[in-house]
Design brief:
- This protein is of the alpha+beta class and about 450 residues long.
- The protein folds into three domains: about 5-105, Rossmann fold (3-Layer(aba) Sandwich); about 130-200, ATP-grasp fold, A domain (Dna Ligase, domain 1), CATH 3.30.1490.20; about 205-455, ATP-grasp fold, B domain (D-amino Acid Aminotransferase, Chain A, domain 1).
- It contains 17 helices and 22 strands.
- The protein has helices at about 10-25, 40-45, 65-75, 90-95, 105-110, 115-125, 140-150, 175-190, 245-250, 255-270, 300-305, 310-320, 400-410, 420-430, 430-435, 445-450, 455; strands at about 5, 25-35, 45-50, 75-80, 100, 155-165, 165-170, 195-200, 205-215, 220-235, 235-240, 275-280, 285-295, 335-345, 345, 350-355, 355, 360, 370-375, 380, 390-395, 415.
- The chain starts with a strand and ends with a helix.
- The relative contact order is 0.11.
- Bound molecules: adenosine-5'-diphosphate (2 copies) and magnesium ion.
Length: about 450
């Protein structure tokens, strides 16, 4: 059993990991930047070490400082959370070489899936469909034009190192392709330090459906069903749910086929620990592999609610060398869960981040309501990190009940001092198409441009 674990992250996910550790009787060490002195994860951990200044590249992204903190505190393991260094194969390797267990896949498996163009090739090898596109990185304009000519417009230019919906561009013709090719490369260089891009057929109005995987160190791999994350703004998830309304109604045979495909990808990569295989599904029921997220995901709670399995606890058990306690047939799905990401952003001002001090804070509760957050009254949200301040999750015996609980919970959630996306989430919950479970990744764009924008103008 691990005695002590360092949490190499901040915000709600650091709190989530500390909670799992407390329940397992593992002592915790928080690391924090100068901007996070008063952050909840620092208060909840058994020990806390300041590792640098506010900007992430002077703190949460500094491998050397995090490893020093781990050695000073003498921990057995590091949990990286999501974002920051969670999918950095080099970090996993440094942990391994310092004899600190990295809670995630091996550096090798991470490396095999690190680059998205390489992951595409791996999926093909595993006989899992990918959107038509380039073989690997596209090195110049001519190469980009040749791929587009072969697969046809529209196409998407995507950063091989991309994440969080950044570094992608859609092109509908040669002119926008050449322009998009260069802007995507520049953006990718700035955001990820890697300008490599590849090209994929742009699938119109698709559904984002992903499968949660668990794999132990003995070669057992299971999936825990899917999450539908099609409610996105600028390719970033906003609402997630399980099960997927699409797989429950229109394409009932897909769950089993996609679940098997997800496991094949994990097998091909010699994957261990928790991971997520992301797909898009078109309107004919074809599915395509997008990428594998080699970490715990933001939206993991909806899977926990419908399967009754604690994913972070499982991550820790697997890292300690424990075999999976569930076989595929042990996994049962009950009821329905929905998650709304609550961001400190102003929905009336193009979702501009709204850092600052939370004055009043009242959070919803009651049966079927879960809130994963680090926010509290008096907390100052720093401007240096992403703007998610909490995740509201509701559970019901069916989708209708989960939605009703979500609307009720959103209406109770009161935060003053900063702007939040609570009212925007409420608008989504009230939308007739959302309520019917009929939506694609274009849902939010339509909501913001269509007749229903009155919700956001405050006139409703
Ligand atoms: P999920 O599928 O778990 O929702 P996201 O793509 O939304 O994952 O990313 C989770 C978090 O990690 C977000 O806060 C996002 O901003 C951050 N993130 C994701 N990829 C990167 C990256 N390559 N670099 C920095 N931050 C990232
Ligand atoms: P990230 O690493 O930023 O999460 P993904 O490849 O997972 O990037 O894509 C994020 C989102 O972008 C998808 O959920 C989907 O909405 C959109 N997307 C990505 N690739 C395509 C594609 N080929 N066609 C249509 N939409 C896409
Ligand atoms: Mg993704």
């Amino acid at each position: 059993m691990f005695e002590k674990l360092l949490v190499a992250n901040r915000g709600e996910i650091a709190v989530r990991i500390i909670r799992a550790c407390k329940e397992l009787n593992i002592r915790t060490v928080a690391i924090y930047s100068e901007a996070d002195v008063n952050s909840m994860h620092v208060q909840l951990a058994d020990e806390a070490i300041c590792i640098g200044k506010a900007p992430a590249n002077e703190s949460y992204l500094r491998i050397d400082r995090i490893i020093s903190a781990a050695e000073i505190a003498d921990v057995d393991a590091i949990h990286p959370g999501y974002g920051f260094l969670a999918e950095n194969a080099h970090f996993a390797e440094v942990c391994e070489s310092c004899n600190i267990r990295f809670i995630g896949p091996s550096a090798r498996a991470m490396g095999a899936l690190e680059d998205k163009a390489v992951s595409r090739a791996l999926a093909k090898k595993a006989n899992v469909p990918t959107p038509p596109g380039s073989e690997g990185v596209v090195d110049n304009e001519q190469g980009a034009l040749a791929v587009a000519k072969r697969i046809g417009y529209p196409v998407m230019i995507k950063a091989v190192a991309g994440g969080g919906g950044r570094g992608m561009r859609v092109a509908h013709n040669d002119i926008s392709l050449v322009k998009g090719y260069h802007t995507a490369r520049t953006e990718a260089e700035k955001a990820f330090g890697n300008s490599g891009v590849y090209i994929e057929k742009y699938i119109e109005n698709p559904h984002h459906v992903e499968f949660q995987i668990l794999a132990d160190n003995k070669g057992h791999i299971i999936h825990l069903g899917e999450r539908d994350c099609s409610i996105q703004r600028r390719n970033q998830k906003v609402v997630e749910e399980s099960p997927s309304p699409l797989l429950e109604t229109k394409f009932r045979k897909l769950r089993e086929r996609m679940g098997r495909a997800a496991i094949k990808i994990a097998e091909e990569a010699n994957y261990t620990n928790a991971g997520t295989v992301e797909f898009i599904v078109d309107n004919l029921g074809n599915f395509y592999f997008l990428e594998m997220n080699k970490r715990i995901q933001v939206e993991h709670p909806v899977t926990e609610e419908v399967t009754g399995i604690d994913l972070v606890r499982y991550q820790i058990m697997i890292a300690m060398g424990e075999p999976l306690r569930h076989s595929q047939s042990d996994i049962q799905y009950r009821g329905h869960a929905i998650e709304c990401r609550i961001n400190a952003e102003d929905p009336f001002d193009d979702f501009r981040p709204s850092p600052g001090r939370i004055e009043m804070y009242y959070q919803p509760g009651g049966r079927g309501v879960r809130l994963d957050t680090h926010a509290y009254a008096g907390y100052t949200i720093p401007s240096h990190y992403d703007s998610m301040i909490g995740k509201l999750i509701t559970y019901g015996k069916d989708r209708r009940e989960a939605m009703d609980k979500m609307s009720r919970a959103l209406s109770e959630y009161m935060i003053t001092g900063v702007k939040t996306t609570i009212s925007f989430q409420q608008a989504i919950l009230q939308d007739p198409n959302f309520r019917r479970g009929v939506y694609s990744t274009s849902f939010i764009e339509q909501l913001l441009s269509g007749a229903r924008r009155d919700y956001l103008s405050g006139s409703s």
